[in-house]
Design a protein that fits this description.
Pfam families: LUD_dom (PF02589). InterPro entries: FTHF_cligase-like_sf (IPR024185), LUD_dom (IPR003741), NagB/RpiA_transferase-like (IPR037171). This is Lactate utilization protein B/C. The chain is built from 6 helices and 11 strands. It is of the alpha/beta class. It has one domain (about 35-195): Rossmann fold (3-Layer(aba) Sandwich). A hairpin with a 5-residue loop joins strand 4 and strand 5. The radius of gyration is 21 Å and the shape is globular. The mean pLDDT is about 90.
């Protein structure tokens, strides 16, 4: 004798619609896809949502800026080129709770999106899923050539690759539901810095 759950599931299974191919979604490109225009849009959007953005030539310039801005506190990076100014290899940390005192995390992004200044980061770049959300300040390094105009291009670039875990991150955390005023760093990193390698 079937219980009500089994009857419901059987009815759903018996009434499944035919599988259809996914629709073709056009890419809505901006009027211009000039690299300098895309970079300017990314810069303007990032600034508007509370991020700090710096154009840098190399990792030495990043090191100098980090050393100047963060003289105290725990600095962690997942980028081998920055190993001499920060702790590395989060993969060896078994308990993510030990990351709670990170002052600054510096990691790479695969690419950025100009229309909302989001960056796409995968688990292998984070090394620990909690890391970019538990730190006090987050810094992300990406190449200027890896900035796409819109989310349409971003999803095309992601494609059907199997990342396990990945996410878009845009700006510091924020909320505007308290007395109708914007509060940055409400439930995650208090600041987000973008280092764009020219």
């Amino acid at each position: 004798m079937q219980n009500s759950r089994d009857r419901i599931l059987a009815a759903v299974a018996a009434n499944k619609p035919d599988l259809l191919p996914l629709p073709e979604i056009p890419v809505f490109s901006p009027e211009t896809e000039d690299a300098s225009f895309i970079l300017q849009k990314f810069h303007a959007t990032a600034t508007t949502i509370g991020s700090k953005i710096f154009m840098v030539k190399d990792f030495e310039e990043i090191k100098a800026m980090v050393s100047e801005q963060f003289r105290e506190g725990r600095i962690v990076t997942t980028i081998p080129e920055l190993a001499d100014i920060a702790e590395t290899d989060l993969k060896t940390i078994p308990d993510p709770h030990t990351l709670e005192n990170i002052e600054l995390l510096i990691m790479r992004a695969l690419f950025g999106v100009a229309e909302n200044s989001a960056v796409w980061v995968t688990e292998d770049l984070m090394q620990q899923r909690a890391a970019p959300f538990i730190c006090q300040h987050l810094a992300v390094v990406l190449n200027a050539a890896d900035i796409v105009p819109t989310m349409h291009e971003a999803y095309e670039r992601i494609g059907s690759a199997d990342y396990g875990f990945a996410t878009f991150i845009a700006g510091p955390s924020k909320t505007a539901d308290i007395e109708q005023s914007l509060v940055l760093g409400a439930h995650g990193p208090r600041s987000m810095t973008l280092f764009v390698l020219e």
